[in-house]
Design a protein that fits this description.
By secondary structure, the chain is an alpha/beta fold. The protein has 5 helices and 14 strands.
């Protein structure tokens, strides 16, 4: 049976959680939300002795995409994003982001456009794409192996902001209720910011979901 390993890296200055996810057996891996600080991410990839074949972002807000170009250049990995986010990213002026990270390289165009219900295969691992709009139009979560990588949709005792472009509070609440809270309550939630939690804990205690 396939077994997943993962490592969470907090990437500053926005405290974004970047996840390195891989098969324990094959050492094939992917990066979720390479927010910045490419040397830190690459150092951890080498330490874990992984072959990274895929980069996926839960959404394309600037605090989640800063190291895509560097990681693609170093690993040759393909890049996947929800179809609704691809156009958003094309409109960015990446020169503005170098104030936060002078080493930033402009991300390449996505190799794969995702939609709800798609699967991402990495080695012997398989994750389902859950489209959870509300924080952004093309926000996604990835579910598999007892965890869900929830991006900025669901946090420990919180939810993503909805006051930016593409934000919609009612849509986000609906996304969480129909796509995330239906998962088994022991499912570990690995969010885009802050500490992990579980679906059961959020179902019982998240003040936004009562």
């Amino acid at each position: 049976m396939a077994r997943m390993i993962y490592r969470a890296l907090e990437i500053m200055p926005f405290g974004t959680n970047c996840y390195i996810v891989a098969s324990e057996q094959t050492r094939d891996g992917m990066i979720i939300d390479p927010a910045g600080d490419a040397p830190k991410i690459l150092s951890n990839i080498r330490e874990l002795d992984l072959k990274i074949s895929l980069i996926v972002v839960t959404h394309t807000h600037p605090d989640h995409i800063g190291a895509i170009g560097n990681i693609v250049e170093d690993t040759g990995a393909s890049f996947a994003v929800h179809t609704a986010e691809a156009e958003t990213m094309r409109r960015y002026d990446f020169s503005q982001f170098t104030a936060y990270d002078p080493t930033l390289k402009q991300p390449p165009q996505p190799d794969r456009l995702l939609k709800d219900g798609d699967y991402l295969v990495v080695g012997d691992l398989k994750f389902q794409v859950l489209h959870t709009p509300g924080h952004s139009a093309g926000g996604i979560c990835l579910a598999g192996y007892g965890v869900v990588f929830s991006g900025d949709s669901l946090f420990n005792m919180g939810i993503g902001r909805t006051d930016g472009p593409g934000g919609d509070y009612n849509l986000l609440i609906s996304s969480i209720r129909t796509k995330l809270l239906v998962l088994p309550e022991q499912t570990v939630v690995l969010p885009g910011h802050g500490p992990k939690t579980t679906i059961g804990q959020e179902r019982r205690s998240n003040p936004f979901l009562r």
